[in-house]
Amino acid sequence: MVSKASRSVLVQRFCAVTNAPSDVAQAYLKAHNSRLEFAIDAYLTEQSSQNLVPRLSAQQEKDARAQLTTQFDRLRDELDPNLISYDGSITLLDELGVDPASVDVLPLSFYLESPALGQFTRSEFLNGWLRLGVGVSPISDQEELRRQQRQSMARVMDAFRANAPVVPKFKSTEKASSQKGLYTAVYEYTFAFARAEGQKNLPLDMAVTFWELLLPHAPVYDVDGTKAAAGRPSFSPVQWELWKRFLTTTSNLRVVSKDTWTQFLAFMQEIDPRFETHDYEAAWPSVIDEFVAWVREQQ
């Protein structure tokens, strides 16, 4: 969305602040839609996250897997031994103190690699909790397991709100993700997670429901106007209400495509409070261009 000359300036400024090589600067800027402040924050956060990946001894892993297996078997579906289905998922969330209607379900589902709403599979469930550090302290019983899981959830939600780096998969050799933060990763994951099996797009009402959950936690969401006043990227509740009203009362949209879902997050980071800086020549989905035109007509 930015010119080659502008991109070069951003790379130079990134390198000047971080002392990172230009190829690293380019990767971070690309991952954060050329938003310099977000790219620098993500880079510095990762550099300070030396203890992000949990380290378990062989015995710690064995003990944790045993307790997690016991938990999974208690919650699993009666017909499929490798699946926790809806009822078991509700029980799990209740034990963790997580409201099934809250946004907390999405980062948890992301890390446990849930294939669909209300489902968890055995291998991904076990490895997901180990990935989040369950088992670093001794686990003597199921109550201690749940205590550690609740602690892990608290850390996950803090990281989600800060768009901190994604924790690599358990026993992976990869570093904490430099490509996107946890909020961004969860936002993108939600599209496939919420979509019905075999469907390419997300029904509009479902998309609006998940936007309602996710957008208030976006790094650019600006409840009180302080981000806009400071000249930082911002997207206000008023702008969200306009988007929702446009989709539900004015547009002919019935489903939301993956491109629209993904690009809307980038749009939030780029648009100004009065919708004056929108570039119609950029490769935005047509529904976003139509939305901006509609807003300008209302002003």
TrEMBL record:
<dbReference type="Pfam" id="PF14555">
    <property type="entry name" value="UBA_4"/>
</dbReference>
<dbReference type="GO" id="GO:0097602">
    <property type="term" value="F:cullin family protein binding"/>
</dbReference>
<dbReference type="GO" id="GO:0032182">
    <property type="term" value="F:ubiquitin-like protein binding"/>
</dbReference>
<dbReference type="Pfam" id="PF03556">
    <property type="entry name" value="Cullin_binding"/>
</dbReference>
<comment type="function">
    <text>Neddylation of cullins play an essential role in the regulation of SCF-type complexes activity.</text>
</comment>
<dbReference type="InterPro" id="IPR042460">
    <property type="entry name" value="DCN1-like_PONY"/>
</dbReference>
<dbReference type="InterPro" id="IPR009060">
    <property type="entry name" value="UBA-like_sf"/>
</dbReference>
<dbReference type="GO" id="GO:0031624">
    <property type="term" value="F:ubiquitin conjugating enzyme binding"/>
</dbReference>
<feature type="domain" description="DCUN1">
    <location>
        <begin position="63"/>
        <end position="296"/>
    </location>
</feature>
<keyword id="KW-0436">Ligase</keyword>
<dbReference type="InterPro" id="IPR005176">
    <property type="entry name" value="PONY_dom"/>
</dbReference>
<dbReference type="GO" id="GO:0000151">
    <property type="term" value="C:ubiquitin ligase complex"/>
</dbReference>
<keyword id="KW-0833">Ubl conjugation pathway</keyword>
<dbReference type="GO" id="GO:0045116">
    <property type="term" value="P:protein neddylation"/>
</dbReference>
<protein>
    <recommendedName>
        <fullName>Defective in cullin neddylation protein</fullName>
    </recommendedName>
</protein>
<dbReference type="GO" id="GO:0016874">
    <property type="term" value="F:ligase activity"/>
</dbReference>
<dbReference type="InterPro" id="IPR014764">
    <property type="entry name" value="DCN-prot"/>
</dbReference>
